[in-house]
Amino acid sequence: MGQVEWAYGLAKDLLKAELPRRWAHTQGVAEQAETLAPILGADADTLIAACLLHDIGYAPDLVDTGMHQLDGARYLRDVAGADERLCRLVAYHSCADNEARQRDLLDVLAKEFDQERQDLARALTYCDMTTDPDGRHLDVRDRLAEIHSRYGPEHVVSRSIAAATPCIVSSVRAVEAALSDVRQAGAG
Ligand SMILES: [Fe+2]
User: Fold this and answer.
1) 3-state DSSP call for residue 79?
2) What protein residues have CB closer than 5 angstroms to ion ligand 1?
3) CA of 172 to the centre of ligand 1 (A)
């Protein structure tokens, strides 16, 4: 079985019945990954698989620390036996080191997982941060506003997203620039 097929089955089992909206979001995030094939080459499947798995830490059975990026990555490492790169991408997706700091888990996260290559980490952040909770695609600024309004100003996720905003926006813009370069090269 290929990595994408495996990730799809695992994420569907963990999310579809219990968290259908999260599953809709996940599928939209994976669709975005497919659009990045021109800039990712051989790593495209790894990114699609990471997109499918990025939010499994929200599945009720997986919740442990409450930081979904860490809980999901631990499940991938300890239970699912996933590729190390997938664990790393999920652990740090969408600039999660900011949320780890807010939750006092940065040392734990850094001790357990290394960071993945920056272009892949940015690509995952792009896919997540340009997809709304229903799986529709939108600009990163609208996505950030949506997260703030969904969680409210006091929530740890809103505080984390505020701290992560420069990292998230620069990741998205870097991927958009890489895509535009590839398209121009193709047109010229
Ligand atoms: Fe997400």
Assistant:
1) coil
2) 55, 128
3) 14
**pLDDT tens sequence across 49-71:** 999 999 999 999 999 999 999 99
Q: What is the pLDDT of residue 64?
A: 97
Q: Are the C-beta atoms of 142 and 34 separated by less than 8 Å?
A: no
The DSSP 8-state label assigned to residue 41 in this structure reads G
The 10 Å Cβ neighbour count of residue 27 is 18
Cβ distance 28 to 134 under 8 Å? yes
Ligand 1 centroid to Cα of residue 25, in Å, is 7
pTM of the model: 0.96
As a residue count, the chain comes to: 188
Residues contacting residue 168 through CB under 8 Å, at least 6 positions apart: 94, 95, 125, 129, 140, 144, 161
Q: How far is the CA of 30 from the centre of ligand 1 (A)?
A: 10
CA–CA separation, 49 vs 118, rounded Å? 17
Question: Please, are residues 71 and 109 in contact by the beta-carbon 8 Å criterion?
Answer: no
The pair phi, psi for residue 95, each rounded to 5°, is 60, 45
Phi and psi torsions of 104, nearest 5°: 65, 35
